[in-house]
Amino acid sequence: MSERFYDAAPNATRVAPARPAPREYPAKPAEVTLFGTCVVDLFFPEAGLDAIRLLEREGIRVHFPQEQSCCGQPAWTSGYVNEARDVARSQLDVLDNGLPVVVPSGSCAGMFRQHYREVFAEEPETLKRVEDLAGRTFELIEFFLHVCKVEWKDLGQSTQIALHTSCSARREMNTHLHARELLAKLDNVERLEHNHESECCGFGGTFSVRMPEVSGAMVLDKTRALRDSGAVEMVTADGGCLLNINGSLDKQKQTFRGRHLASFLWERISGEGGS
Amino acid sequence: MSQRIPMTELTSSFRGRATEALADSQLRTNFRVAMDSLMQKRADAFPDEQERERLRELGNHIKARALSQLPDALEQLEDKLTENGVHVHWAETTEEANRIVHSIIESKQGSQVVKGKSMVSEEMEMNDYLADRGIECLESDMGEYIVQLDGEKPSHIIMPAIHKNRRQVSQLFHNKLGVEETDDVNELIQIGRRTLRKKFLEADVGVSGVNFAIAETGTLLLVENEGNGRMSTTVPPVHVAVTGIEKVVANLRDVVPLLSLLTRSALGQPITTYVNMISGPRKPDELDGPEEVYLVLLDNGRSGAFADAQMRQTLNCIRCGACMNHCPVYTRVGGHTYGEVYPGPIGKIITPHMVGLDHVPDHPSASSLCGACGEVCPVKIPIPELLQRLRQENVKSPDEPPVVKGSGTKHSRKERALWRIWAALNSRPGLYKGLLWAATRFGKLTPGKLGPWTENHTAPIPARRSLHDLAKAHLNAEQNQGGQS
Ligand code: SF4
Known about the structure:
Chain A is an alpha/beta fold and 275 residues long. In chain A, 47% of the residues lie in helices and 11% in strands. Chain B is built from 22 helices and 10 strands. In chain B, a hairpin with a 4-residue loop joins strand 5 (212-214) and strand 6. The N and C termini of chain B lie far apart (82 Å). Chains A and B meet through helix 1, helix 2, strand 2, helix 3 and helix 4 of A and helix 1, helix 3, helix 12, helix 15 and helix 17 of B. The complex binds iron/sulfur cluster. The site of iron/sulfur cluster (SF4) has 15 residues of chain B, from helix 14 and helix 16.
């Protein structure tokens, strides 16, 4: 059957593709901006620092604008458009320096790349800046793999890990396979599969507070699947998921834990044993 | 026949019902097992990812075009059907639709109705309406029959009794029909069949739904696997079809990709066992078929969704159920938790238009926005985006003009004020850094209980130094060492 007949579908409203098309990657830049994300800022700052170290190790000068805060997602997903827009606008200003923006979290990167378009849908002048930011935003692992094209030497002991990929990495950013690929390059790391890997961990920002029962059931199943994989630890490139999964494991009094991929990677390739 | 449980007798909120459902381990297992198998079937039905994506794109375009021409298409449909000898009725509300169906049955002095599976008749609560007027309405789809026998509502739009396993069905048949218990699924189906066959011959009227109504030819297309739809639409002397106005498509050619998307997304089938195409009553020289055919076109809030370009996409839905099969929330709590006819992701975006957002205020937030629904939807409805939009409508001030009926019910001055403060903190660097300063200094004082979050987590403790601090110190040190900057 041919799509030709339907080319001129009138008023088909914009539909976000389930998986964005593969993007073109630029050459490795000399400088980047790190957008730390509010969750990493407050709860996993060492992961942010490890991300900086990894970038510097690639010979990249890292800027960390002190005026940065949050991408605006919590308000946006709660339906508070104006509040989200205020915060988003302030971040647009902060990130206006034209440098690539590297983000150690798929959901915040997804906010820049996808949702700012909706946030500013009614402001054509701002949309230009939004498109510009979207074009130079990279998720951290994506950046290492495709922009830096890293070939790292694994200095760590042999280990078995489970990888958790966030829904935004999977469905908004199309970056869910990047961590796999990067980990596959590390000689002493074995990635173990777990059940229902593509399923949400139940965080969803304020969802975990508004629907604690359902969210709780989801994270319980997720932590069980991760532990059942036989891995010694979980790694993920998303702060929100990490907060959710570790918070639940702690409540369950498990010793199994998750760690941000940036810290795991820094440990492997620097041989420094994490910061 | 036992009456259905009115939903008001159940715990009244989504959260309350979810808690009950989560406590039912049998239910959770039933759903998990069933959904895992359905996900696998759908995956197997689309072995070629590129073909699937092109087909979805096509499906989206066909539906978008059909909707863009909706008023004209409906008129054309009416004209064609009338030409074919089908009586067409329009109903704005479910009450009106029920009245129409009832008056048709009454005019035939009918007292027994058999029904093929139809979600629109569920929407109308037709069984109860007719029962109150002395008319017995028997479900002939096996799943529907099972939930009817148990006085329940369907928990899934394709598989109404998916929440029950075979043991539970066997016990139900034993209790209600007095037959021996059996573990054999075929035997169970035979038991149901034997009971139903008799009823087909006795029925005065057959009721069915419609999967696609084709404007160009005036054809009602109906897919099913059990043959009950075929029986309901051909054996009784009168056939009444009920459908939502969004089911109209331009022509038969448009149906081909949609049908393929529907059956593959729903049960992983290349095509269903039966594809019924009804274009009118029995003609003088024909041996079977009903003597009269009626179509009731129901609005019930659909034109409200139609009026808004973004919300209109809700009407793309071809009711395949794939979004619920892939939804982690649906999988955990099951269809009854939603408390409405359409459960799962599609239910969360279509129900507000039908009953008003004020009746289902929890629906838009009962999602982690993981995106699984949008990823599988065969007609590419951006369900997460629409949920997002409904969240906005939900917290809108009641002074603003409503786009969805009942919007603004979650509006709370207090909550808005909190988000204002949040926005101020996050858009003014000085304030944000003050917050970091306080959180990192006094984080250890965070109370062990932080509302609902700590039901399933320990309270997160802020780090002693924020990334702002660490980054500044680190980058300054680099500089002082005569580093790169
Ligand atoms: S919203 Fe999409 S996936 Fe869900 S039932 Fe409708 S067509 Fe199927």
